[in-house]
Specification:
seven-stranded parallel beta sheet; alpha/beta; about 850 residues; elongated
């Protein structure tokens, strides 16, 4: 606001009675005593209604009291009474802006400029008004005029930058922003704008610093909170992002940008209901926004409302959602078990793209990885990858085609992260070959991206070995607990441990892992950005606990980001990736000749290769537990607590036979997050074993405490012969609960057997299918036998916990690898 010209008032009325009253009112105004100033002004304008100065002062007082309508009315009367005062015309314009009369404000600013054409503030303020009217060309012209008059005023440069940004001149906006900040580094709007520009350019890390600075200067700045929340979200720092975005919505519940980012965050961490709550108001306003429809479909999928999810994905396609919507619909249908519809969706997409002469890489890749076994013959697979990934106009007779296709034809790595986990390939026929084939397929998919090269021959020059541990499952599950044991067991005098966490949710196990690490690096959403972050850590060894568990980690593991890359511990199966040099297992996990199942060099470690802690005891009686889980006391209860997707068709007849022979028994299964697995598995079992399907029941397990109480409530726990969970045996045996297991030849089916070998109890270990059924029945029906076995397990289970011998050998192995040039180790 143009300052009040006190000398003008003093000289004009110095010889009148008006002068004393005016001076008194002005003094009250300057002292901040606005109520008294208002009373004095009322007396003045009542006695001297044509006095422009009195009316002007009364308008200033009304504005300070928040009565903008009255202020504008008084300023208008003052402007009429004294049409030659640029100051009054300017203040009238500002008052009109305050009540939203922007077009009238422009007229008042123009009158002020005619009276005082050399005042840069007038040009800047009229430019600000034009910007509010979205008349950006006029705004730019007035900012430029203001800068001609006052090139050294930082605020004008900052406002000019905002205008250029709105006009799409990002480079010009960035230049003007930096000019303003070189003059003054505390202009909040300029700091927010430069942060937003860098976010738009994908420079997320460099965007964070000016945004943090803006929030330090003005903690509640809404646009700064929104942009900083967006930056933290992209960097994978979800807790901080959520805090910022919730602050924004507390200030303005209608802030669409903050609400959209919060919905994306909720989707990323699996909070489907929260995402739906954030999206509903946005869709009410924009019901045909394809991205909002796509996000709502993902949220509905998370909470199990799959038919609605399919509808929303279809609506997103109809609204112009593009390839992402088609791909997501196909994945949803495939996860639902409707493979026919999913394949039809993808084939239609392929046909459409061929007709348009566009690249079909995404849809062909989805069709291959979602439905069909990948060719295990690598030469044949290479030919198929070329067919799937290259444009369909490629001459089929061309000899020796390669995969160095145009970068724009590559699949966006962000889309690749949405593929289902790779480990499921192990459950197909010839599972090990499938895993190796899929790994090779992934490497061909991601070859050629701009990933930093790692110096394999660099000299370490002694010191601690820099070890990075990567997993997307650093939370309260079996793999998360395995990782916790790993970071706890590593000798910090010999190793620096960096925990590298892909963008997922956090819980108590996450925090405990972080506490044991020397450095924690949350990764951003963009896997290419993550690859650069990991490469920049200058690690010696990168340990992927479970690269096959999710597509994001599989993508990272496909690249060479450290001189030595190893896997193992979380998932006991090959990654199929040539950039993983070694796979580490406990020596008893694999039978003789198991090396042929791995693309990596297999390293066998003594002991369990698990640093576990005993499960917490369940302080409830058997009767209380049975009542809690609604179990009948007069019949036996079996439990299979594994995910339904590892309960293969080969396991079905064993379950059916147990239920046929134990005629009143009940089998409990854990209700899956996706009820489609419930339906798909149930349909398969019911079709083939309808006579016993009615004695199965799904139960909801929300926490590990729930799982432990359920384990103690049942008579016998059954484990799928196809897949052993990382920590299930430790929970069961630590509680003295019989776990029936049928070890195979591969490590993924022998982890529980290794635990029984350690405690020298073999009553629950079966050696063929009939033995599995007989063992389960004996333990369930012979209460005395079960009691003896449970006691034996419980009394010796302490041997399983706190074992460090595997990790001593693990550290020695890494030190030996680092003692020679890495290229000689690989």
């Amino acid at each position: 606001m143009v300052a009040v010209n006190q000398t003008h008032y003093e000289n004009r009325y110095s010889l009148s009675d008006f002068d004393a009253t005016y001076r008194s009112a002005l003094g009250l105004y300057e002292a901040g005593r606005f109520a008294e100033a208002e009373e004095a002004c009322r007396m003045l304008i009542c006695a001297y209604p044509q006095a422009a100065d009195a009316m002007h002062l009364a308008g200033l007082v009304a504005a300070k009291q928040g009565n903008q309508v009255l202020a504008a009315e008084r300023m208008g009367r003052a402007a009429i009474a004294d049409a030659n005062s640029a100051e009054i015309q300017h203040d009238h314009a500002q008052a009109l802006k305050a009540i939203g009369k922007l077009r009238d404000a422009v007229g008042a600013f123009k009158r002020a400029i005619r009276l005082c054409p050399d005042a840069p503030a007038l040009y800047c303020n009229i430019a600000n008004t034009y910007r509010q009217l979205d008349e950006l060309k006029d705004a730019r012209e007035n900012y430029e005029h203001a800068l001609e008059l006052a090139p050294d005023i930082a605020e004008i440069h900052a406002n000019y930058a905002a205008c250029l940004y709105a006009m799409g001149d990002v480079n010009g906006a960035e230049t003007s922003c930096m000019t303003a900040l070189r003059m003054r580094d505390d202009i909040v709007n300029a700091l927010v704008l430069i942060g937003q520009i860098r976010l738009d350019q994908g420079r997320t890390v460099s965007a964070s610093e000016p945004l943090r600075r803006a929030l330090t200067l003005e903690p509640g700045h809404q646009r700064a909170l929104t942009a900083y929340g967006d930056a933290l979200f992209r960097l994978g720092q979800f807790a901080g992002a959520q805090h910022c975005l919730r602050q924004v919505l507390a200030l303005d519940p209608d802030d669409a940008k903050a609400r959209r980012t919060l919905a994306l965050l909720n989707l990323r961490v699996g909070q489907g209901m929260e995402a739906i709550g954030a999206l509903e108001p946005l869709l009410a306003t924009n019901p045909h926004d394809p991205q909002l429809l796509l996000m709502m479909g993902e949220a509905l999928s998370l909470v199990g409302r799959h038919s609605e999810a399919v509808e929303r994905f279809g609506a997103a396609i109809g609204a112009g959602g593009g390839d992402d919507a088609v791909f997501r619909l196909a994945v949803e249908l495939a996860e639902e078990g409707d493979t026919g519809s999913a394949q039809s969706v993808l084939q239609n997409g392929i046909d459409r793209k061929i007709a348009a002469g566009e690249n079909t890489a995404l849809f062909r890749t989805a069709r291959r990885l979602l439905f069909a076994p990948v060719p295990t013959n690598l030469a044949a697979q290479n030919d198929e990858v070329i067919r799937d990934l290259l444009d369909d106009t490629l001459d089929e007779d061309a000899l020796e085609p390669d995969l160095s296709f145009v970068g724009s034809d590559r699949i966006d790595p962000m889309i690749l992260t949405r593929f289902p986990p790779v480990w499921r390939a192990a459950l197909r026929p010839e599972g090990d070959k499938q895993l190796r084939a899929v790994g090779h397929y992934w490497e061909r998919l991601v070859s050629g991206y701009d990933v930093p090269e790692v110096n394999l021959s660099r000299d370490r020059k002694g010191g601690k070995i820099r070890l990075g541990v990567v997993s997307a499952n650093m939370c309260d599950n079996g793999i998360g607990r395995w990782v916790l044991g790993l970071v706890d067991a590593i000798d910090r005098d010999r190793f620096d441990v960096t925990v590298i966490r892909p963008p997922t949710g956090e819980d108590d196990i996450t925090m405990r892992i972080d506490e044991h690490a020397d450095l924690v690096v949350p990764l951003p959403l963009d896997p290419l950005h993550s690859a650069r972050v990991i490469s920049g850590l200058d690690l010696d060894v990168l340990h992927y606990a479970d690269p096959q568990a999710d597509a994001y980690t599989m993508l990272l593991a496909s690249w060479r980001l450290a001189p030595l890359q190893i896997s193992g511990g979380g998932i006991a199966a090959t990654s199929g990736l040539s950039n993983i040099d070694y796979h580490l297992i406990a020596e008893d996990w694999e039978t003789a000749g198991g090396e042929k199942r791995f693309s990596e060099k297999l390293v066998r470690l003594p002991g369990l290769f698990v640093n576990a802690t005993p499960p917490e005891s369940v302080d409830m009686t058997t009767t209380e537990l049975q009542r809690l889980w609604r179990l009948a006391q007069d019949r036996n209860t079996y439990l299979c607590p594994q995910p339904l997707d590892v309960l293969t068709a080969d396991f079905d007849p064993l379950i059916a036979e147990i239920l046929r022979l134990d005629e009143t028994a009940e089998l409990l299964l854990i209700a899956p997050e996706r009820d489609s697995w419930d339906a798909a598995w149930g349909r398969r079992f019911a079709v083939n074993y309808a006579d016993v399907a009615g004695r199965m029941r799904f139960v909801n397990v929300r926490s590990r405490a729930d799982l432990l109480s359920l384990l103690c409530a049942v008579d016998v726990v059954l484990e799928s012969p196809a897949w052993n969970d990382a920590m299930l045996a430790f929970d069961c045996l630590g509680l003295g609960v019989p776990l029936v297991t049928l070890p195979g030849s591969a490590a993924r089916s022998r982890r529980s057997h290794t635990c029984y070998r350690q405690i020298s109890v073999f009553d629950c270990v079966a050696y063929h299918s009939a033995d599995y059924v007989d063992t389960a029945l004996t333990l369930a029906t012979d209460k005395r036998r079960r009691s003896v076995v449970s006691h034996a397990i419980k009394s010796r289970s302490h041997i399983l916990f706190g074992q460090k011998s595997s990790f001593d050998a693990y550290m020695q192995f890494l030190e030996e690898c680092m003692a020679v040039p890495v290229e000689n180790v690989m």
